[in-house]
Amino acid sequence: MAESRIPLLDLAPQIEALWPELSAAIERVVRSGHFIMGPNVGAFEQEIAEYLGVSHAIGVNSGTDALIIALRAAGVGAGDEVITSPFSFFATAEAISQVGARPVFVDIDPASYNLDPELASEAVTEKTRALVPIHLFGQAADMDPLLALAQEHGLAVVEDAAQALGAEYKSRKLGGLGTAGALSFFPSKPLGAFGDGGLIATDDDEVAMHARMLRVHGARTKYYNEAIGYNSRLDELQAAILRVKLPHLDEWNEGRRAAAARYTELLAGVEGVVAPSEQPYGRHVYHQYTIRVADGRRETVQHGLRDAGISTMLYYPVPIHLLPAYAGQYGPLPIAEQAAREVLSLPLWPEITAEIQMRVVETLAWSLR
Ligand SMILES: *Cc1c(COP(=O)(O)O)cnc(C)c1O
After folding, report:
1. What global pTM score does this model have?
2. Pocket of ligand 1 (CB under 6 A)
């Protein structure tokens, strides 16, 4: 009998386990007829603000919009430079460009894949207005030196925490460390909705007020529009779903951490593979478990796994500065470019079994022989 296919991520166990509560929450919203900015949005904003330890949480309709609105609310706009990482999802840089600023890519730390604070400091100019560190794969960027740099030059810090809800830097929740943090509830993220969703977290009253205004067409008072804003609200239905899921987030993140530790143990004997490294300053939540396979053998491994029915992904195959949208505008960033050639993300979800992980690692080891 052929072995079953192994997906990169299986959301079915959490949906099955919570279905009675989820379906009841969905039914209540539908029967209430209150679909936009209803009581669940407000309640969810309060609950997640408490979870993150921030004073304001503003639900919006995606992580991308969370970045765009957070940047604008923090005063970033045309003519500004924003220092960020080239090794992220496109939206990180896209949001910077959307507000009229110019992304300035600096190379990454090869161990954490996150913005290198030393290089960030060398990239500051007269025009620099903000830093956008991203916490890739669920692990914190080294925030203290970045926050110090921002302090020194009067820069805003907008954290891209889309992959890192529940992760920590020195015991503080990511997304709540800078001027503002952007979160995503895209279904595959640590806390996933049943569609798009996002959130801005901040301790700054002004930034919060501005973000709340921008998400509803730039109006604090209905039909009295003060700025050119957006229609970017977190859906009432998604908020109700997220309220059911949020109390389970820590337990899911623990499940992913345990599974990651098991992979690292299983991979210890496999030559040619480098397991992800956990930085001492943070609690990594393994949104992705990403290995490195050097010497041009990554595709061999990926194809070997694929032929055995095991899904993997390349996050990310091309660093942002080399994508067609930005091609020709930036010089080489060798560490990010090497990472893009070597990374491979393995199947991982909170309930993944040791049997599945053993099959993945055995197949992987076999493909490298
Ligand atoms: C998912 C993601 C985003 C965008 O979030 P959406 O909700 O899909 O718009 C931004 N940055 C990073 C790093 C992401 O992983």
Report:
1. 0.97
2. 62-64, 88-89, 91-92, 134, 160, 162-163, 184, 186, 196, 198
